[in-house]
Specification:
Shape of chain A: globular
Radius of gyration of chain B: 19 Å
Distance between the termini of chain A: 50 Å
Helix content of chain A: 25-40%
Oligomer: heterotrimer
Strand content of chain B: under 5%
Largest sheet of chain A: 6 strands, mixed
Strand order of the largest sheet of chain A: 6-7-8-3-9-10
Chains: A alpha/beta (501), B mainly alpha (297), C mainly alpha (339)
Number of helices of chain A: 17
Mean pLDDT of chain B: 89
Chain lengths: 501, 297, 339
């Protein structure tokens, strides 16, 4: 049998970086193949080449045995390959149907008559089993809804091969299950799927086999036998992982209590609707939810970065309690904040590490007094912080933008935890980082908990919350459920909470 | 207030708002595609001069208007090259255009048609015969320059193209997210160039309107901030051409009111009236804030 | 071709184009560009011209510093013309009360000028921070408002005593900035400008305020995260920016005009933006860029007198210089960290 698609010795370089090095790959009709590996392993580069979004430097791609050259995603679509990117290619301020038309170059001429296009759109949507308002703006849709728009767009072309780049990373458990069911439905019709994921459960639940990539090369394949799971992890990481820190804390008094908190989004809609909970010393509470349900705003309000409409947040830290305090005061009393959007909030990319260090240290007389900066002291402290926290940088004068994402995150955490802290507000602290950095950051949070620090961990990764949190709470459409002890709930219940407010 | 007064006021509103409105239409299209051009003040000045010069040299104000459009397109092409090819900051290139347009129009005017106001062959108003004598409606709607009707058609037409056609959809996609538009195989730079050039053409027209319709002369720096007011109109109209055009008529009204108040209240220092459109622009931006998202917390 | 070679060629192209644009206009006007350049430079660097270059460079430096300060905070201040007028008006308004205060009077006169400009800049900052009104448009509009205001004041309440000329009364002599080189117009405002250059550099590099404003300019989200009160910071940055333009107004009155009149320092605001941009917002480079523009202003005045070339040529040259310098950034992209 000839493979539906075969890649032979693909190579792709970005400057000095060998993103793909002699990668060969094949998939047969109706097969579901997982591609797995750490960030930077070359998965996205590979599928972008297969989907026509990148052209290989060398090597060839064969479809049904004959070589092809894919210059654009449109070329790939004509050849029966549709690619759904991890970051949706949707335009937020346009409607669903406008986005659907944009995805089909053959419709893009003259006057657009949406009414006559509706039946065709509807047919594909029904096939996918979704009911979507075609005249809704994409910005009003949930993450799952946006993914469905992308899928409809991909299915227009009756693909023989569907490539999904990290499709489950943003989905709540039940929507994830539905997506995986749909992939198996397509398999029944003879459509092949390449599923990129860093979650091993996705592979075990859905794929026929998995291809493991590391450092731009294919390092092995797995038939996904359950008892070889440990070997698979070793194949992905390339070494044994450092052991996870399993120390527990001893829960103490409530350091933060949130009462009937209401917070708005930038556009004035309600993001957090009367939330109440206590965060105690020596515990980690996991805050979960589907993106866009108010968790981000809750964390920002707690960090003093977003106005509070009604309700209060009390901090029983330091010598005197504080209520609804601003970011600068919270910093002073030892509330650390790791923002979820690093480049947008936590660092200034064009600045040196020293200046980035100073960003949150202006209240310390060591670094700023009488309105003047103490740059030498700051440079020394920065050098010490990057050394002790294993931040790979040429020195305190290095430009923040020149650090890798993982090192930037380690820097942010080093900066936040370089003074005595009582509370850590962490927004997706491990998102998008390689597994070793992830383990290091988790271990750091666990170690802080053992010292009696209270941690609020906003995470999209339920298994992470399961591994290190004591309690979990869930936000759906602004309403908060929980917190409950991890041992007293199940993944299924949490998944249900995530989708029903 | 009597009918004659209102008639004259409304007619003047349209006459005085048209130059801003023309420029605002094209700037709205340009911003919709994602390119800001603060330089239309300079392009309008160049258009005003070239129209006056063309009208004096050829004897035909229509040729002057054509030249104004061409110089507008030429200057906009420089902006497009700077912004899209050299990737220079839009604001910087636009400011360069303001300064260059000021220099070009004044320098060339002094060398050709003279620094002092020179009368040029103006563009006559259209004659609709009897209907232009209907009270109020007649003089207001049927007593305007042909350019005013062209402007109205351009505003509605531009809005239609942007909202209803595939070309317009692609333009909106470019303006919302260049990166996504590129992955959707939209020729982003070509679409943006088209919008920038269109913006230059209407800014040139707006300048021409000033010199061959409104004033019948070229005076140095005669645009007097109307290009910047057009940018304000686009902000107020949230990049929608028709709304921006209507906002421009609002500034036309402010101008018409202040001119009339000068005769009604001769004791009031005229300087306090002349600033009315500019103050109105600030007030409109402040009042229009509630629906706009603030960038800073 | 090596990368270095490509850069050299790019920069070369940029400068050729910058020189060609004004040359083209000079040619069309019937003059020899070389001869025009020679006349311009001979005058500007000659025995009469050099002091005029510096006389122009004084207010241009102050305005350029102001524009650069706002830029570093992420704001576009195009209102230097209006702020300059506001500063001059406030200073002249109170000047009669300063008679007999000696050198302290001059100091207060300059401070009043700064306050006038700062008030107008702060207004634009306030409308931006609290109402989201574009500071670009607001500052431009305020320019047109202020031109009318000074026009009213010098024909009304502040007109000179004979009530004939459209100009204000003279300020007392102790508010004059003394001429520092006999036989020229070069006045002590030069020291004011240089002091401000140093102050600008110190504020930007050494102070918490300068650091906060540059964070706000580079990443407003990070400023909020760091706990800066960004709205108030916006007002302060715009006030300082306007204050420097207002100081330029007081310096122009104290050093040159000694009273208010129409068309004072006309067009210096736009030139100030150009100066800030070509100096890449660096304190040390701003006075140099201001001297370059001083050469253009003073030299083009000479061209008008000697060759009857219209003065607006200066704007053509300035426009070409902006395009050229902006294009140099394309030719030589910077990768250095802000330290």
């Amino acid at each position: 049998m000839t493979p539906l698609l075969e890649a032979r010795s693909l190579c792709k370089n970005f400057g000095q970086l060998r993103a793909n090095d002699d990668v060969s790959f094949a998939i047969f009709p109706g097969e579901i193949v997982g591609v797995v590996g750490e960030n930077g392993a070359g998965k996205s580069t590979l599928v972008k080449m297969l989907g026509g979004a990148l052209t290989p430097d060398s090597g060839e791609i064969l479809i049904s045995g004959s070589p092809v050259t894919l210059h654009s995603p449109a070329d790939a679509q004509r050849a029966g390959i549709s690619l759904v990117h991890q970051h949706f290619n949707l335009i937020e301020n346009l409607t669903v149907e406008e986005n659907l038309v944009l995805g089909r170059p053959e419709l893009r001429h003259g006057i657009i008559r949406f009414k006559s296009l509706r039946p065709e759109f509807l047919a594909v949507a029904e096939d996918l089993g979704t009911h979507i308002a075609f005249d809704a703006r994409v910005s009003t849709l949930s993450v799952g809804g946006r993914q469905q728009v992308e899928l409809i767009r991909a299915l227009f072309h009756d693909p023989r091969l569907l490539i999904l780049d990290e499709p489950t990373a943003v989905l709540p458990p039940n929507e994830r299950d539905r997506l995986l069911r749909f992939i198996r439905l397509l398999k029944g019709r003879g459509t092949a799927t390449i599923l990129i994921s860093h979650k091993l459960d996705d592979l075990y639940d859905c794929c026929d086999r998995a291809v493991v990539m590391r450092g731009g090369r294919v390092v092995g394949t797995s038939d996904l036998l359950v008892d070889e799971r440990k070997e698979l992890i070793r194949l992905i990481v390339g070494a044994e992982l450092p052991p996870p820190d399993t120390r527990h804390g001893t829960p103490g008094k409530a350091l933060v209590s949130v009462k009937d908190l209401v917070v708005h989004r930038d556009n004035g809609t309600v993001a957090v609707d009367r939330a109440s909970f206590d965060l105690h010393a020596g515990e980690i509470i996991g805050l979960c939810g589907v993106e866009g349900n108010g968790q981000t705003e809750l964390l920002q309000a707690m960090a003093g970065m977003r106005p509070i409409q009604t309700g209060e947040i009390n901090f029983a830290v330091g010598t005197r309690p504080m209520t609804n305090a601003d970011a600068a005061s919270l910093r002073r009393i030892g509330i650390a904040h790791i923002p979820e959007d690093r480049l947008h909030y936590a660092v200034v990319a064009a600045f040196s590490l020293t200046l980035n260090f100073l960003l949150r240290k202006l209240s310390k007389p060591r670094f700023a007094a009488w309105g003047l900066l103490r740059r030498q002291a700051a440079a020394k402290a920065t050098a010490a912080a990057i050394k002790h926290n294993d931040v790979r940088a040429s020195g305190p004068r290095a430009r923040m933008a020149d650090l890798s994402g993982g090192n930037q995150q380690k820097f942010v955490i080093a900066r936040e935890l370089s003074d005595d802290v009582a509370v850590i507000l962490a927004g997706h602290p491990t998102r998008g980082l390689d597994i070793r950095t992830v383990v290091a950051i988790r271990n750091r949070l666990v170690a802080e908990r053992a010292r009696g620090v209270a941690v609020l961990l906003l995470s999209a990764d339920l298994s992470e919350v399961w591994d290190i949190a004591d309690r979990i709470m869930v936000m759906a459409r602004g309403r908060l459920r929980g917190p409950v002890r991890i041992g007293e709930t199940t993944l299924a219940e949490i998944g249900h909470w995530m989708t029903t407010p | 207030m009597d009918v004659l007064f209102i008639t004259a006021l409304l007619a003047a509103t349209i006459r005085l708002g048209m130059a801003i409105g023309l420029a605002a239409i094209g700037e709205a299209a340009s911003e919709r595609s994602g390119v800001f051009n603060i330089g239309i003040e300079g392009i309008m000045l160049s258009g005003a001069f070239v129209a006056a010069w063309g009208s004096v040299r050829t004897g035909s104000p229509w040729l002057g208007v054509l030249f104004a459009m061409l110089i507008g397109i030429l200057l906009a092409a420089i902006h497009a090259f700077m912004v899209l090819v050299l990737r220079i900051d839009q604001f910087v290139s636009g400011i360069g255009m303001v300064i260059f347009g000021l220099g070009f129009s004044s320098f060339a005017a002094r060398l050709t048609i003279g620094a002092k106001p020179t009368s040029v062959h103006g563009l006559a108003s259209l004659d609709f015969g009897a209907i232009s004598h209907i009270p109020i409606v007649g003089p207001v709607l049927f007593g305007q320059s042909p350019l005013a009707y062209i402007a109205l058609a351009l505003a509605v037409g531009t809005g239609w193209v942007i909202n209803r056609t595939a070309f317009g959809l692609e333009i909106r996609a470019c303006g919302e997210s260049t990166a996504v538009a590129e992955t959707l195989a939209i020729p982003v730079k070509i679409r943006q160039t088209a919008c920038i050039l269109f913006g230059g053409a209407t800014a040139g027209l707006g300048g021409a309107y000033l010199s061959v319709v409104q004033v019948d002369a070229f005076v140095e720096n005669m645009v007097a901030g109307r290009g910047f007011l057009a940018v304000a109109c686009v902000m107020l109209g949230r990049r929608r051409p028709v709304v921006a055009f209507l906002a421009a008529l609002g500034f036309g009204l402010a101008e018409a009111v202040q001119i009339r108040m000068q005769t009604i209240y001769p004791d009031l220092p005229y300087q306090f009236l002349v600033i009315l459109p500019y103050v109105a622009a600030i007030a409109a931006l402040v009042l229009g804030h509630s629906r706009r998202r603030l960038e800073t917390v | 071709m090596s990368e270095g070679m490509t850069r050299v060629i790019r920069v070369g192209v940029v400068f050729v184009v910058a020189a060609l644009i004004p040359s083209l206009f000079v040619l069309v006007a019937g003059h020899n560009p070389w001869r025009v350049l020679e006349t311009l430079l001979l005058y500007a660097l000659g025995p009469q011209g050099w002091s005029e270059v510096l006389v122009h460079a004084i207010p241009l430096t102050l305005i350029g510093l102001g524009v650069a300060f706002a830029f570093r905070g992420g704001f576009f201040n195009i209102g230097a013309d209006g702020q300059l007028i506001a500063g001059a008006v406030l200073a002249v308004f109170f000047a009669p009360y300063l008679d007999g205060w000696g050198i302290a009077g001059l100091l207060v006169f300059l401070i009043l000028g700064s306050l006038g400009g700062a008030a107008l800049g702060a207004l634009a900052g306030y409308l931006r921070a609290w109402f989201g009104a574009s500071e670009i448009i607001v500052t431009i509009m305020l320019n047109y408002v202020m031109v009318q205001m000074i026009s009213y004041l010098i024909r009304g309440p502040m007109q000179e005593t004979s009530r004939f000329w459209p100009q204000s009364y003279l300020i007392p002599e102790n508010c004059f900035l003394p001429v520092i080189v006999q036989g020229t117009r070069l006045h002590a405002g030069l020291f004011v400008a240089l002091a401000m250059v140093i102050a600008f550099a110190v504020i930007q590099r050494r102070t918490v305020l300068g650091f906060k404003s540059s964070v706000l300019g580079a990443n407003p989200g990070a400023a909020a995260y760091a706990g800066f009160r960004t709205k108030i910071l916006t007002v302060v940055v715009m006030a300082i920016s306007g204050g420097l333009a207002g100081l330029a107004g007081a310096v122009e009155v104290g050093g040159i005009y000694q009273r208010l009149q129409d068309n004072m320092a006309e067009g210096f605001g736009l030139a100030g933006i150009a100066i800030a941009l070509i100096a890449r917002l660096e304190a040390a480079a701003i006075p140099l860029a201001a001297c370059l523009f001083g050469i253009f202003f003073a030299g083009t005045g000479a061209l008008q007198r000697e060759l009857a070339l219209p003065f607006p040529l200066v704007w053509i040259i300035e426009g070409a210089v902006i395009f050229a310098v902006a294009a140099v950034q394309w030719a030589l992209p910077s990768r250095k960290a802000v330290a």
